[in-house]
Design goal:
two-stranded antiparallel sheet
């Protein structure tokens, strides 16, 4: 009987010691090691790829796109169509982007893309209307946009609906309008685009791109500086 109790006690003790050791290793040492490595080698990614303005305030993540719209006349009117604030660079079309936090607030609504075929009449109509708007919005007194100048990403949404980047061609298309609306020279705005253009990952993956939030944050710093 005593031997049985003693064996049970030893087994319980061994189990508790194993539990304590494994808890320390997997619950303390491992998380601290992973966190330390992430902070040391991938600090930006580990902290959410945050973008900060010139005052040090976080305005969003470089991984999630934002809209740049004028405030609605009635914030509670869900039927009122959003109108772009033309002093900012505009992202790709999407129903999934929240409001712009460079100015006030940002809230994610939804994400996703259309599954309509390329010859779907509704999609063709939408793309045609968006293209006409892009031409009208970006044509200025000294710069006229032609239909052939509008890149595909200016009129189509991404697969996620949350793409934070646009092509250098779409950014360049907006330069004259942004310069005019902000009282800047075309050269100043072109430099902003160039400074915020990233090349292909590792030199061969993906396409050159411009992060819209980063670009507009730099634009805000320039206009307020």
């Amino acid at each position: 009987m005593n031997n049985s109790v003693g064996s049970t006690a030893r087994l319980i003790g061994a189990g508790l010691r194993a539990l304590l050791v494994l808890t320390v290793i997997s619950g303390v040492v491992y998380p601290l090691a992973v966190t330390g490595i992430a902070q040391a080698l991938f600090n930006d990614k580990a902290n959410g790829s945050e973008i900060k303005d010139h005052n040090g305030n976080v305005v969003g993540s470089s991984l999630i796109g934002q809209r740049y719209d004028l405030p609605k006349k009635d914030p509670d009117d869900a039927e009122e169509a959003a109108k772009p604030d033309l002093k900012w660079f505009q992202p790709r079309p999407s129903g999934g982007l929240g409001t712009n936090s460079v100015n006030t607030q940002y809230s994610l609504i939804l994400s996703g893309a259309t599954n309509k075929a390329a010859d779907n009449p509704d999609l063709v109509k939408l793309v045609t209307e968006v293209k006409e708007a892009v031409i009208a919005d970006n044509s200025t007194a000294t710069y006229e946009v032609g239909a052939q100048d509008v890149p595909a990403d200016a009129v189509t949404s991404s697969g996620s609906g949350l793409d934070p980047d646009i092509s250098p061609a779409y950014a360049a298309l907006q330069v004259h309008r942004v310069a005019e609306k902000n009282g800047l020279t075309v050269e100043q705005v072109e430099k902003l685009v160039k400074d915020n253009t990233r090349g292909r990952t590792l030199g061969f993956m993906g396409e050159p791109r411009v992060n819209v939030l980063g670009l507009n944050t730099a634009l805000k710093a320039l206009t307020e500086g």
